[in-house]
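User: Please fill in residues for this 206-position structure.
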């Protein structure tokens, strides 16, 4: 895998490709970061297996689905579980996180009725966001290392880091009253390679 040629295809934004970009940055792995506008998407869409982005080409073979891509890269570069139980716990929290992200995206981007959108955003702010933050704070407290699983940086730390740091969910996630999430955020940000990437990454609106 160290010598594999990687090509990541996604729109010119962070969105569902940014976790993969951060993993690759943390691993120090060179890859081709293919970004395109919405207008250019029809040109790249035929390259993807299911007509969706992101997609990851590994030595010319193209794979899709952001969670699958992230898990693959995490395994390949040492950011997944050390054993099956650690992997189980990481993926449990990933799916817990996705239970928050998916309906949030639906409200923001797939709800056309203004009243329904307003009600959905209110529910996220008052119910969904505090719920996920309380769960995450509790997981960190129970683990006791500053990380979500084990005593090192893993995929779930990167996912939450991006989620509270400019990802589309960040507008709802006020972590000022969650000291353990703040500590975890600083641990991820203190990674030298991630810090370098964050300092130089392209500024996009989403």
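Assistant: Residues filled in for all 206 positions:
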């Amino acid at each position: 895998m160290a010598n594999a040629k990687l090509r990541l295809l996604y729109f010119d934004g962070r969105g569902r490709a940014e976790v993969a970009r951060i993993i690759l940055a943390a691993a120090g792995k060179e890859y081709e970061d293919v970004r395109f506008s919405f207008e250019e998407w029809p040109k790249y869409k035929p390259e993807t297996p299911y007509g969706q982005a992101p997609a990851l080409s590994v030595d010319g073979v193209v794979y899709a689905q952001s969670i699958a891509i992230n898990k693959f890269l995490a395994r390949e570069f040492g950011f997944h579980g050390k054993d099956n139980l650690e992997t189980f716990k990481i993926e449990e929290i990933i799916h817990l996180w996705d239970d928050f992200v998916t309906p949030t995206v639906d409200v923001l981007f797939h709800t056309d009725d203004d009243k329904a959108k307003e009600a959905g955003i209110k529910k996220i702010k008052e119910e969904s966001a505090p719920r996920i933050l309380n769960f995450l704070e509790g997981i960190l407290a129970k683990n006791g290392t500053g990380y979500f699983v084990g005593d090192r940086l893993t995929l779930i730390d990167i996912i939450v880091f991006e989620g509270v740091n400019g990802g589309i969910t960040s507008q709802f996630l006020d972590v000022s009253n969650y000291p353990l999430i703040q500590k975890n955020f600083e641990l991820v940000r203190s990674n030298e390679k991630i810090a370098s990437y964050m300092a130089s990454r392209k500024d996009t609106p989403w």
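For context: DSSP finds eight helices and four strands in the chain.
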